[in-house]
Amino acid sequence: MTIHLLKSDQLLFPPVEDAAPDGLLAMGGDLSVARLLRAYQAGIFPWYSHPPVLWWCPDPRFVLFPQKLRISKSMRQVLKRQQFRITINEAFPAVIEHCSQIKRAGQWGSWITREMIRAYTLLHQKGYAYSVEAWQDGMLAGGLYGVWLGKAFFGESMFSHFSNASKAAFITFVQYLQNEGVRLIDCQVHTAHLASLGAEFIPRAEFQTLLRDALTDVVR
């Protein structure tokens, strides 16, 4: 098994079929806007805690089809009561900062490093990275961020300081994406939280086909 080493002066990625069984495809390169966009368009994402940058394309892939969004009765009541005010791109720096500080089971530290924060903040400034915020009594209660290209959204991370805050943000945003014609939400890897909302595994080959269709109008 060979892990490809990316050259700093080239943006090309190896075929995703070359990925290791755990999904690791390549290492090296940088988090420039051009490289990140090339990665997402190929179904590849960065995930690492310390240099070098590690690039992944797991098989199977965990995704959510917007039309299959599952909303529990309790969450329907939360949304009906309008317990949270949901906004889009109102506080991207705060959302990604909060996501970087969440302690997650089985993880030491955070993969959302300062380098990651700088890179995705620049993606946001260029119009590719989006944040969704859930507010309660004027305070940021929860939220999420990710990358939106064509008819695909790539979820990166979410946080919640109050019960149901991130779920409210996610559900509201998925409904918004569906209205915008988005056909595929990439959740990358399994979490019980997203599974409860309807996310499912599909083969990588199927994901790649769906992704190409969703990115038809994206300039590569």
Determine the number of helices (DSSP H or I, runs of at least 4 residues): 7
Query: Which strand order spans the largest sheet, edge to edge or round the barrel?
Result: 6-7-8-9-10-5-11
- Net shape: globular
Largest sheet: 7 strands, mixed
Can you walk through the features of this model?
Strands 6-7-8-9-10-5-11 form a seven-stranded mixed β-sheet, with helices on both faces. A four-stranded mixed β-sheet has the order 1-2-4-3, covered by helices on one side. 40% of the residues are buried. The chain has helices spanning 33-41, 73-80, 92-101, 114-125, 165-179, 192-195, 204-214, and strands at 4-6, 24-28, 45-46, 54-56, 61-64, 85-88, 129-136, 139-149, 152-160, 184-188, 200-202. Strand 3 (45-46) and strand 4 (54-56) form a beta hairpin. The chain is of the alpha+beta class and 220 residues long. Helices cover 31% and strands 26% of the residues. It is globular, with a radius of gyration of 17 Å.
